[in-house]
Amino acid sequence: MGKITLSFKSFPKMVFEFLEPLQGLVLLFPFLGFFFFHVWQGLEKAKLQRFIHERTTTKEELKRKNDELKIGIVSYTSAERIETLYRRTYQFLPISLGNRTVTIELPPIPESPAKSNP
């Protein structure tokens, strides 16, 4: 049987011979890395754009619902509606003075004569 002798000087040579067929991959690796990074970045951008679109749609829908609720509050709390409900509830009885809401409008405040120009 043949004896295999290894020396420390031949070890780097053996590693280089083993890796020599892979030199093409070493040269190609930066290009592949750039390509995969570019694809990954495009996918992440698409995900974020879809997320933004979904949130914008949800925001618009919530704004519309909020406006509808505001309109509902105004219509359900109007004085005419409350009076109509009162008349229906109490079978068209006249509204007594104790149950009536009176709104008083104050006259405007007159301007003082001290502000006039001499």
Give a structural overview:
- The protein is mostly helical and 118 residues long.
- It has three helices and no strands.
- The radius of gyration is 43 Å and the shape is rod-shaped.
- The N and C termini lie far apart (129 Å).
- The model has no long low-confidence stretch (mean pLDDT 79).
Helix-strand layout with pairing:
Layout: H1 10-19, H2 23-76, H3 79-89
Structural class: mainly alpha
Q: Which strand-content bin applies to the residues?
A: under 5%
Helix content: 55-70%
Shape: rod-shaped
Largest sheet, if any? none
Q: Which properties best describe this structure?
A:
118 residues; mainly alpha; rod-shaped
Brief rundown of the structure:
By secondary structure, this protein is mainly α. It contains three helices and no strands.
